[in-house]
Amino acid sequence: xxxxxxxxxxxxxxxLLSSGPVRIAALVGAVVAITSGTVGxxxxxxxxxxxxxxxxxxxxxxxxxxxxxxxxxxWGFLVFGxxxxxxxxxxxVQRRRGRDVATGVVLGAALGVAALFLYLGSVTTSTTGASxxxxxxxIFVIAPSTVPVLVASGVIAVIVVVVLSRVLLxxxxxxxxxxxxxxxxxxxxxxxxxxxxxxxxxxAVAIGAVLSTALxxxxxxxxxxxxxxxxxxxxxxxxxxxxxxWLGIILAYDSYxxxxxxxxxxxxxxxxxxxxVFYLLTYLRRPSRRGxxxxxxxxxxxxxxxxxxxxxxxxxPGERACSAAS
Amino acid sequence: xxxxAPATAVDELLRLDGIDVRLSGREILRDVRFAIRPGEFxxxxxxxxxxxxxxxxxxxxxxxxxxxxxxxxxxxRGKSRRSRAGSLVGYVPQKLAIEPDxxxxxxxxxxxxxxxxxxxxxxxxxxxxxxxxxxLRAVGAxxxxxxxxxxxxxxxxxxxLIAHALISQPKLLLLDEPLANLxxxxxxxxxxxxxxxxxxxxxxxxxxxxxxxxxxxxxDRIVYVAAGRAAVGSADEVLRTxxxxxxxxxxxxxxxxxxxxxxxxxxxxxxPASLGPVxxxxxxxxxxxxx
Lengths: 326, 291
What we know:
The complex is a heterodimer of chains A (326) and B (291). Chain A is an all-alpha fold. Chain A has helices spanning 2-11, 20-45, 49-68, 73-91, 100-125, 129-136, 147-163, 165-173, 175-180, 185-207, 212-226, 230-254, 267-281, 289-297, 311-315, 317-325. Chain A has a single domain (17-283), classed as ABC transporter involved in vitamin B12 uptake, BtuC. In chain A, 74% of the residues lie in helices and 0% in strands. In chain A, α7 (147-163) runs antiparallel to α10. Chain A is globular and about 60 Å long. Chain B has a six-stranded mixed beta sheet with strand order 6-7-8-3-9-10, with helices on both faces. Chain B has helices at 52-60, 82-88, 106-115, 126-138, 154-166, 184-201, 235-238, 241-248; strands at residues 14-23, 26-36, 41-45, 67-72, 75-76, 89-92, 172-176, 204-209, 221-226, 229-233, 252-257, 260-265, 284-286. Chain B has eight helices and 13 strands. Chain B is globular and about 55 Å long. In chain B, β7, α6 and β8 form a beta-alpha-beta unit. Chain B has 291 residues and is an alpha/beta fold. The interface between A and B is large, with 57 and 59 residues.
């Protein structure tokens, strides 16, 4: 830790690591980033970004409701997120683009209720920061007593997803293959949605309900562009999330000395900005790793048991054209 | 492991008996019955929408028949556990839409064929790597083991999916329209791989196709499906005007043109365009010259 602190002393404002809230933020931020990054790989792979966003919207309602009745927001996020996951499962959101309209209407209603709760909360408690912390996060004001709960939730969600990783991948590849091989596809999908709800709730605490999707999707999408193989994609995604979160925390702490002086910039802004920058950086890479794979395979690779093939079999441009046409 | 010790001399790997399938009042299959022996190469031929996919789903246990029985390796389908049947049957579904950002490399997909139905993370081991490499070699896909599946062409993806289905050493390989959308040469490559597997490893192959032309040289038998019913036999026994007319429930002509068999439904006559190797208007084309 001390060497890290030494490095940080060049880029971070003094007192960064001796600050209690910053330490908690760094710890919770790492847990949230690892959870979101790991879970997010499957969210992207399964095409469930919309589901992730839906859970975040409904969690907003829970978080604002919890604030209104004086509970910790995490419980509000969690209860409503898990409830929304169960609802999505029942109406069958597993199908891609399934039930778009019904989900959209429900989400609109949920956010409407959240607006009401936040308004009532600000009127009755005369604290104006509530809507900001619910919507955009509160990583610097996490009560130390809730840290164990947050860490435990993250650990559970990651374990669930890692244990399910193979069946999740197989059912992403083809639900029919998975089902034919005895995988209870629907139960697996439902369990995954629950882990997703937990992950979104954690991210909502850290960077806000509205922005939680960014931490869920961004690092995962970045990792999927650069990493090969599912295990590496999960690890890369988690690392990217942690880097973005920690850099965000450092800059947010620094920003107390930026204009307007005495008011730090929101940490969520920095985290989400870094996530976006990392994603955009991947577009600077060469586009085709397929070309490299083929070049590496070389001309000696046997293609098919019938002996020498014509050029069409070798390159397969016709296949590509056909599959593109269909 | 679970080779299913043949207590009795089971010379039939699979038997479908009187299979009816009705979905929300609509009759999808009626009295479909046929059997498959080990190592046999069977074409499941018929027009789109005839019920070919439903037959495959019944065999896989993904679709419960309204009546009738499926007997797989001597055991009625309903009584054996799904996973047990899963190790006996390899399945290549109809063209999958695999996104390029799917994080699975070719070797990952094939590895999922070993243990994709289990919990936890796989142990990387030399034996596992070699099994994957050997299976990829068997289907001629070892040249792109590290490429992402989503970046492959249709024909390459089919080979990978065949390797995925093959690696658990099934006795029966079911393939749903694996040749659709492939150019002729890729299709021939796939067919050659399958024929070799059937011949050398005694794996029974049941392959559905609306165009039987690329399968003609290797099919032992045809299960011809039309309007939810099936006729079974050799090409000469099935591809006859009287047999197929009964099946379709209307008059169809089985025409022999340039060494191929063209099946033309109804009284519309022959569309000259239908005589090419790939046809849309007639329901199926058969290259009968090899028979």
